[in-house]
């Protein structure tokens, strides 16, 4: 009998050790191992408990200005001009126009200046009006493993904030003429950039802010990061495969189609990217109208009956508070 009991215990231990850690360990509401896409939509398995690259993090912290800033205007819509922090000549010799608004776009994990989300937003703006569009390429950190990138986002965001302060000093452009837009991990980055400016930027727009390792992270985007902060949630919910944070982080939080799944989508990646697509469409058409909700259950059941507020757009004087449901179609312009 004793031998049988011993065999049972050994077998149980073996079975327990064979169970994937993803089923045993929960991190910030997520399984330990999650699938997160790069800028090209390729999914990568991420260990949320991996050890970060401290050498890279120390470098990023020492030099948070280590970003690339690429200017596009109606005079150079395809080929960018590089702006260099603390190099006034790089700005004064460029096509930067302090008399028109400035829009900064920050990409997500494993992405760079060439990622399609940047191009989509840039083109929408330049077709609509005369603006300065600056793509913040933070690939030095974004190319690292996900855990390291998360840890380094605040420092990179501070670098972006310092760059915008430099633009203000060099050109005289007011912070109220600046709109900082970020997607996924970049959404938390632009929140930190706005924080570096003391919340003086006109707008921060967080496009489906990344969820893994951010639900309880004090460095995530928040409502005080700009005069007006807006978030568009398209892949949230309780599903541990969700890529977005799925909870209120801004002055106004929009939940298109309930904020969990999007029409025409069958994957988390498709849902996640819709935040960018929706935002770009609203720059052109300003046609998505949300209704204010008082509870998450109203968002889910589509029973919101509160005041209306338009989602997205390029309005630098926009204001609003609360959470909103927006219903869209499945094809552009949605």
Automatic annotation (TrEMBL):
InterPro entries: AB_hydrolase_fold (IPR029058), Lipase (IPR013818), Lipase_N (IPR033906), TAG_lipase (IPR000734). Pfam families: Lipase (PF00151). Its main location: secreted. It comes from the Eukaryota. It is found in: Secreted. GO terms for biological process: lipid catabolic process. SUPFAM superfamilies: alpha/beta-Hydrolases. Residues 1-18 form the signal peptide. GO terms for cellular component: extracellular space. Keywords: Secreted, Signal. GO terms for molecular function: lipase activity; serine hydrolase activity. Residues 66-306 form the Lipase domain. Belongs to the AB hydrolase superfamily. Lipase family. This is Lipase domain-containing protein. It comes from Mythimna separata.
């Amino acid at each position: 009998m004793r031998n049988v009991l011993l065999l049972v215990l050994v077998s149980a231990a073996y079975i327990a050790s064979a169970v994937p850690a993803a089923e045993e360990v929960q991190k910030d509401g997520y399984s330990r191992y999650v699938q997160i896409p790069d800028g090209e939509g390729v999914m990568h398995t991420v260990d949320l408990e991996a050890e970060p690259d401290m050498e890279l993090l120390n470098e990023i912290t020492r030099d948070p200005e280590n970003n690339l800033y690429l200017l596009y205007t109606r005079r150079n819509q395809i080929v960018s001009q590089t702006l260099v922090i603390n190099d006034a000549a790089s700005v004064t010799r460029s096509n930067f126009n302090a008399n028109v608004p400035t829009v900064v776009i920050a990409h997500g994990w494993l992405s760079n200046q060439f990622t399609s989300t940047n191009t989509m937003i840039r083109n929408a703006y330049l077709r609509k009006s005369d603006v300065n569009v600056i793509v913040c390429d933070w690939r030095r950190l974004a190319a690292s493993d996900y855990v390291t990138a998360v840890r380094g986002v605040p420092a990179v965001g501070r670098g972006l904030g310092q760059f915008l302060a430099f633009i203000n000093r060099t050109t005289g452009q007011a912070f109220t003429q600046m709109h900082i837009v970020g997607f996924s991990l970049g959404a938390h980055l632009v929140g930190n950039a706005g924080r570096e400016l003391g919340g003086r930027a006109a707008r921060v727009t967080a496009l489906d802010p990344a969820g893994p390792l951010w639900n309880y992270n004090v460095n995530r985007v928040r409502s005080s990061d700009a005069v007006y902060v807006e978030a568009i949630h398209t892949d949230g919910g309780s599903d541990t495969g969700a890529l977005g944070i799925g909870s209120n982080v801004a002055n106004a939080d929009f939940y298109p189609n309930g904020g969990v799944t999007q029409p025409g989508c069958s994957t988390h990646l498709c849902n996640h990217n819709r935040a960018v697509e929706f935002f770009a469409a609203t720059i052109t058409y300003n046609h998505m109208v949300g209704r204010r909700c008082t509870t998450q259950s109203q968002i889910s059941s589509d029973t919101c009956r509160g005041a209306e507020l338009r989602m997205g757009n390029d309005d630098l004087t926009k204001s609003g508070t609360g959470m909103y449901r927006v219903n869209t179609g499945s094809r552009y312009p949605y």
